[in-house]
Amino acid sequence: MTHDRSHDLFTRASELLPGGVNSPVRAFKSVGGEPFFAARALGPHLFDVDGNRYVDYVGSWGPMIAGHAHPQVLDAVARTMRDGLSFGVPNALEVEMAEAITRIVPAMEMLRMVNSGTEATLSAIRVARGATGRSRIVKFEGCYHGHGDSFLVKAGSGALTFGLPNSPGVPKALADLTLTLPYNDFDAATALFEEVGEEIAGLIIEPIVGNANCILPREGYLQHLRDLCTRHGALLIFDEVMTGFRVALGGAQERYGITPDLSTFGKIIGGGMPVGAYGGRRDLMSQVAPSGPIYQAGTLSGNPVAMAAGLATLDLIQAPGFHAALEASTHALCDGLEEIAREAGVAFHTTRAPGMFGLYFREGPVETFEDSAGSDAKRFGRFFHAMLERGVYLAPSAFEAGFMSSAHGETEIAQTLEAARGAFAEIAAA
Ligand SMILES: *Cc1c(COP(=O)(O)O)cnc(C)c1O
């Protein structure tokens, strides 16, 4: 497998883009080596500019749940774009999108479309602060909510990988307003709310932590947070930018039966185009401009081509059995990997939710951020490259979830497990 063209492009890119990329985790910093440059993608596969093909378990970090370049999504985009790319006045697809989301996710009584997950979470905490008149927000160690100032306080994702718990450029005065709790710790949450509960505008959480690999909530944990928020008049915000429309059609809130006050979405609802959304209780969302005083706007928000891609994707995932099949293939992959690791004598553990999974180079269980951070990142890096050489692209970080799409069939999973046999043998021998 050669990477000459990717190498040339990365050399040029590194002159002009910080780290050669437009988003940090793409740079392969935490696994070493250089990224490959995509030429195209189809179904479960990515093809790079040197002609190599990879089974792709990143799926553009979540949006490509129906596989890459799905013909129904591409047709919807092509049909829509012929009528113009942006209007600056309302269009029918925005209404269809709002109707689709509110039908699938009942807690979304009213919503606003934006252009990224980052915008969605920023806007959601503005609503929480504006509606409650309080300033503090609570987040969880290892959770990532985009790169907004208030969230880059012990953030997960890139910030965790690069050991930058607090980014320069985030004012201390603002960071002070963000309180951080350990995920899955019942008592810590209770204690915090008993101390400052009446100052908390909102608590934001990834209900399944996909940005510190993949940590599932303990039985009753999300309900505990729901109860604390209700008791203390704080708003519960589910950041479902990753889990939304993936771990169940109605997201983690459907899977765990919790009704948040506000929710944020992105990734899948854009079908690969830049899209986010935030929304929830009608009494809260009706305080957003222009129906209320809480300001938020966007020149390209509700973009027709982006709405078309998202709506086509939402159509695909509403096919009967879609999420059950996604769950079955996620289990097939993870069970297979665990078995191969055991045979090779490598300490290894997986966590899963439908359509997403965590790979850990340590023994299970993994229930807390410390458990997750205890994975052997060096071993993961070796595994990552051994798999890449064998045509399988995993998330280029020991602390990011992997994603399954409906285009990943038995053939791709068998190929992945075959590659893993070689990769685990390399690890065991190292
Ligand atoms: C990806 C992600 C975001 C940020 O979305 P962008 O579109 O990258 O700005 C926010 N929250 C969660 C849970 C995410 O996974």
Describe, in plain words, how this protein is organized in 3D:
- The protein is α/β, with parallel strands linked by helices and 430 residues long.
- It is 40% helix and 14% strand.
- The strands form 3 sheets. The chain has a 7-stranded mixed β-sheet, sandwiched between helices.
- α2 packs antiparallel against α11, α3 (92-104) packs parallel to α11 and α12 (322-344) runs parallel beside α15 (410-429).
- The longest helix is centred in the last third of the chain and has 23 residues, at 322-344.
- The chain binds pyridoxal-5'-phosphate.
- Pyridoxal-5'-phosphate (PLP) binds next to α4.
Outline the fold blueprint.
Blueprint lengths: L3 H13 L21 E5 L2 E4 L4 E4 L14 H11 L10 H13 L5 E5 L2 H16 L3 E5 L16 H5 L10 H4 L2 E4 L4 H11 L3 E6 L15 H12 L2 E5 L11 H6 L5 E5 L9 E5 L1 H4 L18 H14 L4 H23 L4 E5 L2 E5 L8 H5 L3 H13 L2 E2 L8 E2 L6 H20 L1
Bound molecules: pyridoxal-5'-phosphate.
- Low-confidence segments, given as residue ranges, are 155-165
The number of distinct helices, counting runs of at least 4 residues, comes to 15
Bound molecules: pyridoxal-5'-phosphate
Give the N-terminus to C-terminus distance in angstroms: 22 Å
Shape type: globular
Reading side by side through the largest sheet, how are the strands ordered? 4-10-9-8-7-5-6
Quick tags:
15 helices; 430 residues; seven-stranded mixed β-sheet; binds pyridoxal-5'-phosphate; four-stranded mixed β-sheet; alpha/beta; single chain
